[in-house]
UniProtKB/TrEMBL annotation, chain B:
This is ABC transporter substrate-binding protein. One of its GO terms (cellular component) is cell envelope. Keywords: Signal, Transport. Gene3D superfamilies: Dipeptide-binding Protein, Domain 3 (3.10.105.10), Periplasmic binding protein-like II (3.40.190.10).
Length: 329, 519
């Protein structure tokens, strides 16, 4: 971040930090700006795909004139910039537009989004807990048997696509053992009918992320281990556990926070596959269908919802880093 | 994917679907057929909740009975709650439902439909002709309305008295009742668009709740159509056939509707799972353009029809879950011309015909296809290999679905098509083969065929119509732009306790009012 560095250079001393609230606001504005750019990119990308929502939702044998009528009804005959502006100017009022099938986007997402949020946050929590535990365990005895095993296992886990993990889990826990349901079915409230339906999709999402994050945790802890105060603690003969918890983990936190935020993004990507395989009623399935239908408002709606969730996480990660390192990212 | 948007939409367009052969033909017999298993578990009994999985995309959910229904799950729910005037049938391809009977005028242009006795909405109000007229007009006013009720203008839909609806067609049409299957859902007159979610229907089940494409429906105790056995049906939407099959194998659902051959193979070893095969479900013809181009000569088309190895196609492309076909579309029609001899493979004759026609065998011809439904691209590849043995070099080109429908369909010299509506010969003639047909896939213009078609739907004498229908099929067999090598079965999986599931192809599978549970 060159501009930030330059700013720091010209404003030395304690005054180099903007007041807390101002800094927070700047970070938030930057994240919002990124989201708006992303949405513009979504509109542009769907515009570039062959066909549009009027074609995609047409009935075989519908006349060209009828398709044109529907194209006009959906407003697709207007330039993409104009449609984007119309859509995004409704956003502050909570209006996400209407799908190509004539349903309000908010109502299409009202069931799936909380479900994805639930699955995603549980998977994220599990990933981080698992990664911290594994990474720390490995870091306790650098180069030891545990360290090497975790290194191999975590790399392997991260290399496995969610699809492979899902199919393996299904085979083992549902088809052979019969312990867990194969798919998620929902009740009248739109949420999974029982908690055990969450287990397999949760594991399928979390396992690759545990792999990824435990590598990060392990790496960050290794960096901490070389720092003078940690070396001093080791020489003082403090218990390993104490050194880990009190001297190493706090310093590793910023790296872990950023990798958590990155994981959140990857979880959303994995959710499309995992939700389909386990029939989990989340936004992943909605997104896949919406892209096939060239349903721009719905795709953008999913992006806004998940983007807002991920941006919030990124923002939190920024703050954590900011707090601990005392720099503006 | 076993099923796609276009195919579904197509059936949704509703000029037909589902068929007839299932009940009367000796179609390939699944080893664990419901009809036979039902026999040894006593008479049908009442009670229980049936959980049915159906394909659909959460992004495409629609509640409008006259909307663009691309989800099988939506269509299933709608057809349990609402009734259409007629439904697909077994002995005749059109069976009565909300309309108990129909009768045409002498000239076959004016048709009177009599509403079933005792038909009432779920809120208790009786169904009147006004409700039906209002619903049909609403259907006619949708963007695809003209193709859903072809030949019928909005002003041609009227009520004669409280129990009789009159439809007037622009032309003589002996097959008009066929048009009232599948899409003519009847709602109460004046139902507003924002009331669709709770609008009462007249069907065998009432809506208990609906959420994101899933629903629970409870028995309509007061259904005019007879006793409904199941207490309730729960419909669950599935994005992928694989997840649906997994749910069935894990016992989470009782029926996996239209789940496809791949799932059937997986389930073959399972004693506790019934595999239901509904013959004549899906046609995947190869279209040869007749209007111009390399296949315009009828001898060349005949040669390709002789070059295909139909048995091998069914065995390899459909994994054996299908039957050989004879180049005539509408195989499920009770009036299908079974007496026309089955065309077999004859490479020598094919070469001779190609030589006579002066076909350029030094060139390579593109066969365009998509991966819209499972087996489609594979059928093209296998056919290309077989055609090579007759000296025709074919190069298979797989296209993105959108590009295929925009640039190839109705235009290219050689491409694959597919149809989910296979119980009416006349339907295909009217939609895809008569000269002026809007979806004349091969650009076929054959005056003798057109004449046979008009006689088949318009002649006042039934015997004459029937003779013309046979003539029509002979011409189609000999000269059309279609190579129809086989028919894919529709495949459902069901748990051991499920009895009397529908056996009709296509959307006949949604008629669950006679289904019951032996447990």
């Amino acid at each position: 971040m060159i501009p930030a560095a330059a700013e720091r250079a010209t404003a030395p001393g304690p005054a180099r930090h903007l007041p807390g609230a101002g800094r927070a606001a700047r970070l938030a504005v930057r994240r919002l700006g990124m989201l708006a750019l992303l949405l513009a990119a979504v509109f542009a990308a769907i515009e570039l795909l062959p066909g549009d929502a009027a074609d995609a939702t047409s009935e075989r044998g519908e006349s060209a004139a009828d398709t044109t009528l529907r194209r006009e009804a959906l407003g697709l005959d207007r330039p993409v910039a104009e449609r984007f502006w119309d859509w995004i100017s409704g956003l502050p009022t909570g209006d996400l537009g209407t799908t190509a099938h004539g349903q309000p986007v908010t109502s299409v997402l009202s069931g799936p989004f909380p479900n994805t949020l639930l699955l995603g946050s549980l998977a994220l929590a599990l990933s981080i807990t698992g990664a911290l535990a594994l990474g720390s365990w490995a870091a306790l005895r650098p180069g030891g048997r545990v360290d090497r095993a975790v290194a191999v296992a975590s790399t392997a886990a991260f290399a496995l696509p969610e699809f492979v993990v899902s199919v393996a889990l299904l085979l083992v826990f549902s088809q052979w053992a019969g312990w867990l349901p194969a798919v998620t079915l929902t009740g009248p409230d739109g949420a999974p009918a029982s908690w055990d339906m969450l287990v397999l999709p949760l594991l399928a999402l979390a396992i690759p992320q545990i792999g990824w994050n435990s590598r990060i945790v392990r790496g960050a802890l290794a960096d901490q281990a070389d720092l003078p105060h940690v070396q001093a603690a080791i020489i003082d003969g403090l218990p390993r556990r104490r050194i880990l918890i009190h001297h190493m983990l706090p310093g590793a936190l910023p790296a872990v926070a950023v990798s958590t935020a990155t994981s959140a993004g990857m979880l959303v990507g994995g959710a499309v596959v995992v939700e389909t395989l386990f029939n989990y009623p989340g936004v992943g399935a909605v997104l896949a269908g919406a892209i096939t239908d060239r349903d721009t408002p719905l795709v953008a709606g999913v992006v806004v919802a998940t983007g807002a969730a991920i941006s919030t996480l990124l923002l939190l990660a920024d703050y954590v880093r900011d707090r601990i390192l005392g720099t503006t990212p | 994917m076993g099923v796609t948007r276009r195919q579904l939409l197509w059936a949704g367009a509703g000029i037909g679907a589902a068929g007839a052969l299932a009940a009367c033909s000796g179609g390939p017999d699944g080893s664990k057929d419901t009809a036979s298993s039902g026999a040894d578990s006593g008479p049908p009994r009442s009670g229980g909740t049936l959980k049915v999985g159906a394909l659909g995309k959460a992004s495409s959910v629609t509640r409008d009975p006259h909307g663009t229904q691309s989800n099988e799950s939506d269509y299933l729910i709608l057809s349990l709650v609402y009734d259409t005037l007629a439904v697909p049938g077994a002995k005749a391809n059109t069976a009565p439902r909300l309309a108990a009977s129909w009768k045409s005028s002498e000239d076959l242009k004016t048709w009177r439909f009599v509403i079933a006795d005792g038909a009432k909405f779920h809120d208790g109000t009786p169904v009147t002709a006004d409700d039906v007229v209002w619903s049909l007009k609403r259907l006619r006013a949708t963007p695809a309305g003209a193709s859903r009720l072809p030949g019928i203008k909005p002003e041609g839909i009227t009520a004669e008295d409280a129990g009789t609806v009159v439809l007037v067609s622009d032309y003589a049409n002996a097959e008009l009742p066929l048009l009232t299957r599948l899409t003519t859902f009847v709602m109460k007159k004046g139902t507003k668009d924002d009331q669709l979610a709770d609008a009462p229907g007249t069907g065998p089940f009432k809506l208990d709740w609906f959420r994101d494409g899933n629903a629970r429906l409870v028995r309509n105790e007061d259904w005019y159509g007879g006793e409904v056995l199941l207490d309730a049906i729960e419909v669950r939407i599935f994005e992928s056939p694989q997840a649906m099959a997994n749910a069935l194998l894990a016992g989470q659902i009782d029926v996996a509707s239209n789940v496809g051959a791949v799932a059937a193979r997986t389930a073959e070893t399972r004693e506790d799972v019934q595999i239901l095969r509904r013959p004549n479900d899906m046609a995947m013809p190869i279209v040869m353009r007749t209007a111009d181009g390399p296949f315009a000569d009828a001898r060349v088309r005949e040669a390709l029809r002789l070059a295909v190895d139909r048995d091998a196609m069914v065995k390899q492309v459909l994994s054996g879950y299908g039957t050989v076909a004879n180049d005539i579309l509408g195989t499920g029609d009770p009036r299908f011309a079974k007496d026309i001899p089955q065309r077999g493979r004859d490479l020598a004759k094919a070469r001779k015909l190609l030589a006579e026609a002066g076909f350029d065998t030094s060139k390579t011809y593109d066969l365009l296809t998509s991966e819209d439904i499972s087996g489609l691209a594979e059928s093209a590849t296998l056919f290309a290999t077989q055609a090579r043995e007759a000296g025709v070099k074919i190069n298979v080109v797989k296209q993105d679905s959108k590009i295929f429908w925009d640039a190839t369909w109705l235009k290219a010299p050689l491409y694959t098509s597919y149809w989910g509506t296979n119980d009416s010969v006349v339907f295909f003639a009217s939609k895809t083969m008569v000269s002026e047909a809007g979806q004349n896939e091969a650009g076929w213009q054959e005056p003798t065929f057109d004449a046979a078609y008009r006689k088949a739907i318009g002649d006042a004498d039934e015997a004459e119509r029937s003779k013309a229908l046979h003539r029509l099929q002979e011409i189609e067999f000999a000269e059309s732009g279609y190579l129809l090598w086989g028919m894919a079965d529709g495949i459902d999986l069901a748990g051991a306790a499920v009895r009397d599931l529908p056996e009709l192809p296509g959307y006949g599978r949604v008629q669950l009012e006679k289904t019951w549970l032996a447990r």
